[in-house]
Design a protein that fits this description.
5 strands; single chain; 3-stranded antiparallel beta sheet; two-stranded parallel ribbon; alpha+beta
């Protein structure tokens, strides 16, 4: 999975699109492709709920919008401010702890 962060005051299609094209050209050099079913676009900030432009790969596949993403075991949620959810990690830890203590 490939993650990239762009920070800015608004959704600038040119910036996001250019960044995607640069990433695709580097991945193409490595003979890799972006898997659009596993890639997504998510906004964080005051305009997180505003409609945003579509981000399209060089082979005309659109990246999906995400409500949240999982990165290094931490769930990052879209919203006005940056926030993360540790609930899934806590649930997994408690489940593994119970399995360990039952043995």
């Amino acid at each position: 999975m490939f993650y990239c962060t762009v920070y800015g005051p608004s959704c600038l299609k040119q910036t996001l699109q250019q960044l995607l094209y640069i990433c695709e050209s580097e991945l193409d050099w490595l003979d890799l492709r972006i898997n659009t079913s596993k890639s997504a676009v998510m906004r964080i900030g005051p305009r997180y709920a505003s409609p945003c432009c579509d981000i399209i790969t060089t082979d005309n596949r659109e990246l999906n919008r995400a409500e949240g993403i999982k990165y290094l075991g931490v769930y990052i949620d879209k919203g006005r401010t940056w926030s993360c959810s540790l609930k899934p990690a806590k649930q997994a830890f408690i489940g593994h702890l119970i399995q360990f203590l039952e043995k």
